[in-house]
Amino acid sequence: MRAVAALMMIAAMAFGWPARGLAEPEVDVTLDASPTEARVGEMMRLEVRVRVKGGSIEQLQLEDLQKYPELEIISHQTVRPMQVSFGFGSGVQVESSLGHVYVLRATAPGEYAFSPAVAKVDGRTYQSQPLTLHVRAGAGMKATPSPATMAPNDQGEADLSGAQYDERAFLRTVVEPQRAYVGQQVNVTIYLYTRLRLGPQSVAPGKPAMDGFWVYDDPITNLQAQSATVAGARYQVYALHRSVAFPQRTGELTIGAPSVTFDVGGASFFDAPQRIQREGVPVTIDVEALPTPVPANAVVGSYDIQMWIDRAAVATGDAVTLRVDATGVGNVQDLRIDLPPMVGVRALQPAIRDQQRLTGGKLSGTRSWEWILIAEAPGEHQVPPLAIHYFDPAEGQYGAAIAPSVSFTASGAARTPQPAVEPATPRPKPDGAAFGPISVYSALRRGEVPVRSRGWFGWLLAFPPFAFGLLALALSVVRRREQRSATSGAVQRELVRSARTALESDDPRTFYDRIVSAITHAIDASLGEPVGALPHVELRTRLGRAGFDDDLVDRVINELEGADFARFAASGVNQDEMQRCLQRTAAIIERVQRAKVSP
Amino acid sequence: MKRLVTVACLILGVSIGAAGQEGGSSSLTEVFEGANVAASRGDHASAVSGYGMLVDAGVRDPDVFYNLGTAFAQSGDYPRAILNYERALELRPNDDATEENLRMAERRLEEGRAEAEGEATIQRRSSIGDAIFGSLTEDALAYALLLANLCFFVCLAWAWTSRAWSGGLIAAFVAAGLILAFSALGIGVKAGTFRDGPRAIALDDRVVLLEGPDEQAQMRGEARGGDRCEVIGADRDFVKLRVVSGLEGWVPAAAVGLVDLDEGLH
Q1: 0.85 surpassed by complex ipTM
Q2: Does B113 contact chain A (CB < 8 Å)?
Q3: In 3D, which of A34, A111, A99 has the Cα closest to residue A71?
Q4: Measured between beta carbons, which residues in chain B are less than 8 angstroms from residue A440?
Q5: Min CA distance, A347 vs chain B (Å)?
Q6: Residue B262 contacts by C-beta under 8 Å, 6 or more apart in sequence?
Q7: Domain A479-594 has CATH 1.20.120
Q8: Average pLDDT of span A462-490
Q9: Which CATH class is domain A2-136?
């Protein structure tokens, strides 16, 4: 029973395939939306589908979707069911369909016209009907003018200082405050406003130039989107770059234009990725000097100061370490402390270390100074109080942090410093006479252009590879020609050998057939084109045009005509004639091979 | 063209001066010899002036830079001595006298500074590229590149035509390829392809690195005379320096000297 069923199946398929191959596929392409009218912010379901019976779907396109960035794609689903049915009448029937379902949210009012979706089935193109979506302004939202006519400074809801408006995407630089004192913290944040569907991984922001500032960056590792409405349209807003800057001089300082590149699209088959580049606008801030009178080394911020010494008693000539820490809010790198001179104490240059951190948008930190103090005289040495003066912009007044004095005692007699290791021989006192001697001769060469920059250098460098390229090209042409010649020669020899075998076996039909083939092949190889199909009159003309001498042309044509005649009247041919024909053919082939052919 | 005008002006000026001054110089050679005489007399200021005049006139000769460096060293200006010795070594690597004087100038500078301040360090840059190619001139590398390039392609053509790779041919091919790569890399190193800017040397004892190209800008750090650095930017009369430690800052252009006088900013 199974065998019968299998046979029936095979028979059905055997009869069915030709029927299928001849049948026209049934194709239905649809483009629908639900609803087709909505308000800004409402969802719409857009479905494009192709159903095919008896054919295979190659492509389904809806090109207009990427034209409208205002239609935000909330979700996208691809549906591809397939059904196979068997029937004796029409063979195997395959029903398949491919559909894309988009859930869209309109972010701006307008009419969005979609041209027909296009499906390609078995190499043929089918179209759906066109579709238009109508989006009205949202409830309570005022009607917005067309973006093309919108003035950049007329942006409705959002403050857009530091930005150049663009209906698709733009950058905005927010600086706070816009008037500052020298050394006061200024927060700089670069935002990207976009209505495009960007891939966060593709965002590459460019830092703005900030000459005249000391800058501490607050890196943004993860792009977080927020929503903002500009001119009635919803934008996704990303903070791209955040830093705190401290102006270093008075006057107008400019924060340069930021830039960004990012990719949009690529989320679906229909949505080709596109690289977008945007540049912001520079922002200027006014920087004022600190209010007079300015205390010595005053900075902006608020600080505490501590001072201590590592040992209270040392031998005269030994050193102690004086440590001062200033901690507070502000740029600690602006802090300066001048250690006043102390009688009987020599201070070496301080080692300075900074630790800075950004907490709650405020830069704070600690600057540490370490002086090595060498007690050169015995007695009690006192380090006077040290002060840091600072200006608080919020209160508009100066303050001071003061560290009380510290002291240490040096005991024992003063001693002259001795080197740790006595040199074997006394080092000579440095003097200029040790240098030299001077050169009394000089070629007085002028600044010469380096060899690599001279004009001929490039040409000389390029010549060997260029010459090698030419040589390789020429060699490959010659070798290819030789190879082709050797191949055609071998074929001709084989044909002549075959003709000789036919002669020996007294087979005139085969003999003359091989003779014709050998001559024709020799001419083919010489001319570089097939001539076997040419009538003899045309062949004569072609050979004459190619530069064959008339005698050779006559011989070739005569031999071909004789051989053609002999092939069909083989009974009248004898061995001697065939032998002579073979010799004539060999001579003709040799002359053809030697002939100089013009193209 | 500027150089030609400078030389012409120099010669003209010297010629006019010769009319009113007994023993005045009338050519670059005489300026050089005059500076040599001043140096041997111990008149370092005149020697520096004479050699400097030659440099201003476009002379780029290692002997002139060597003598200028020596005149600066003998007058105690070690940073400028180091600069001119570096310039001489750039043009004539492996010159023993120059290298010895350079080391001595650095040592004197360190000793003097250590005596005054308790410690002293001169920041020197030593890259692998400088170590490998330092003893070769750029022109020598360029000629080597041309020769190796020719040999490389001759070997290739030979093998291509004869269709045979003998042992000797392979050895020559590999050697030519290695020399080709070596000299190309060396030219890249010499031309500063792998640097961010021209090499320079701090000339003042303390060169204050500022936050911006402005004298009122805050101090960011400092470089000491003789420190090696790179000039990575310029703005009016200021240049942006990067010292060996990686610290960057703006300094007045006069506070540093370029090792290669004809090298522009990248």
Answers
A1: no
A2: no
A3: A111
A4: 36
A5: 9
A6: A447, B60
A7: yes
A8: 85
A9: mainly beta
